[in-house]
Amino acid sequence: MKYEKTALFIDGSNFYAATRLLNMDIDYAKLHQFFSHNTNLIRAYYYTALPEDHEFSPLRPLIDWLDYNGFAVISKLTREFTDPETGKKRTKGNMDMELALDMLKLAPHIDHAILFSGDGDFCRLLQDVQDLGVRVSVVSTTKTSPPMVADSLRRTADIFIEMEALRDDIARPSRQNNSETT
After folding, report:
1. For residue 35, which of 64, 8, 65, 74 has the smallest C-alpha distance?
2. What is the tens place of the pLDDT at every residue in 151-163?
3. CA 162 – CA 22 distance, rounded (Å)
4. Fewer CB within a 10 Å sphere, N or C end of the chain?
């Protein structure tokens, strides 16, 4: 993998949900460094939906940091709608289309695409990118209940990378471990 032109595609909401369930606090500087060291990393994309500007979001400091530290942040504002079945207000901000278009657009220029998501909706995207000669890895987890990765996505990927196996390479040490060493 060292010489493969590689791009990272991080589905922010899916990746965040998986990291929370694994009690993993991602250090994005370590993540970028790990993949830069082990591949010829040419792009690192992070996809997320943000609440409207007048609402504070804890995501904003992360997004600003990513934007200045080697990640291309792709975002759009969330939309509020009323669920016709329940009458409750819901928020929607799906970034699947943006991620898919970017991966397809970049595919002719890379050897390896690494998708950080477990969303089974990406199966067709992976197949199309593979048909263009690109190797595709999926980073997600089976260590949660239920697993955060769709079985169909694992089967479609050329390589499945268990997030837990990357813990030391991409996560901050847990606070519990820090207090035990002091």
Report:
1. 8
2. 999 999 999 999 9
3. 11
4. C
CA distance 114 to 117: 9
- Residue 82's contacts (CB-CB under 8 Å, 6 or more residues apart) are 88, 89, 90
Q: Which CATH code fits 5-77+92-175?
A: 3.40.50.1010
What amino acid occupies position 181?
T
CA 131 to chain centre: 22
> What are 52-108's pLDDT values in tens digits?
765 666 788 899 999 999 999 999 887 776 778 888 776 666 899 999 999 999 999
Residue 60 and residue 50 in contact, taking contact as beta carbons nearer than 8 Å = yes
Q: Residue 79: which H helix or E strand, with range?
A: strand 79-82
CA distances from 39 to 17, 33, 80, 91, 110 (A): 26, 10, 40, 37, 11
| pLDDT tens figures, 26-44 | 999 999 999 999 999 999 9
Please tell me the distance from the alpha carbon of residue 107 to that of residue 129, in angstroms, as a whole number: 6
Distances (CA, A) of 161 to 2, 94, 142: 16, 24, 10
Residue 59 phi, psi dihedral angles, 5° rounding: -75, -25
